[in-house]
Amino acid sequence: MDKSKKLKVLVVGDEWVHTKDLIHIAQDVLQGYDYELDSFDVIMDKPMSRDRSDDIGDDTVTEYCGHPQQLIDRIAGVQVLIVHTAPVTKQVIAAGKDLLAIGCCRSDAVNINIEAASARGIYFFNAPGRSVEPVSDLTIAFALLLGRNILKADQYVKAGRWAADINRDVPVWDEFVTFRGITFKNKKFGLVGLGKIGKRVAEKAKGIGLQVLVYDPFAKEEAFAGYTRITSLEELFTVCDFISIHVPPLPSNKGLISRKLFSLMKPTAYFINIARGEIIDENALIETLQQKKIAGAALDVYYTEPLPQESPLTSLDNVILTPHLAGQRKDLSEGSADILREMMQPFFQSNCLDTCFNKDKIK
């Protein structure tokens, strides 16, 4: 980048990653440059729903907040665009005739049309790994909660049933014994996906004594060191005591976890999904849980978000439900901004493309 040329910068934040933190990124990344900066906030309007009714003219852009017209109205003359969930569609990129670089504070930047940016020779930077620790933590927490029946036991105590059962003339242990959980040592923990998050989950699962089995046809052989590589989803679902999903929300992964796979699970097995709701056949999982064909499940993501109150999932006692919070952390805004800063600085300060996401697609 030529520091002698004045740049125009547009920063778009939201309630999760604040505009002020994104402005700090721009200030740090563009040290030594002459630039003017414009900014605004978008409203976070259910960014994780797969059933949005609005048509923004670009089906490749998903999980966004706001409307592309908000960017189009301000993009003229902008060379550097920094966003979190704002939708950077092909129309935004077409309107941004002077765009040189786009930064997005997400790992899976599904709100950016990266192909359109690459075709225009626009460098794109993301924030890889920002969710690795919180997502992997919740995955292991789910396994522990499920395997030890912790939530059911908690409800038993809070409802006073423990005291009532023990204080009878002849104590009643019938419900109490149902809380007896499994031991985790040498249980088979099956991972679908061995990306950054999958690798960290594998490390933590192995750390509590679980045998880790992994299905990922795209991972390099060295990534499986210390784990058992499984070459088919059918085998993984058949032999494992836990199944945990960690693949990206690509169109090719929609419906990857099918009714057939659920039917192969052991009746004592547990299913965990912290990836995306559309990756699984949700109706098939609901039927599997209703019929008690597996021991239980824990879900942080759903096909429709927020999860409708009328969903059968909300009435089941063998599933744990959380509101798509796996990637949330108390320092989400500052932490995400820090990662994006690290990714963008080499390009702007040293003309280095090593951290550029689409460097191989720009000629």
Automatic annotation (TrEMBL):
Gene3D superfamilies: NAD(P)-binding Rossmann-like Domain. One of its GO terms (molecular function) is oxidoreductase activity, acting on the CH-OH group of donors, NAD or NADP as acceptor. Pfam families: 2-Hacid_dh_C. Keywords: NAD, Oxidoreductase. InterPro entries: D-2-hydroxyacid_DH, D-isomer_DH_CS, D-isomer_DH_NAD-bd, NAD(P)-bd_dom_sf. Residues 141-326 form the D-isomer specific 2-hydroxyacid dehydrogenase NAD-binding domain. It comes from the Bacteria. Coiled coil: none annotated. PANTHER family: D-ISOMER SPECIFIC 2-HYDROXYACID DEHYDROGENASE FAMILY PROTEIN (AFU_ORTHOLOGUE AFUA_6G10090). Belongs to the D-isomer specific 2-hydroxyacid dehydrogenase family. This is D-3-phosphoglycerate dehydrogenase. The lineage of its organism: Bacteria, Bacillati, Bacillota, Negativicutes, Selenomonadales.
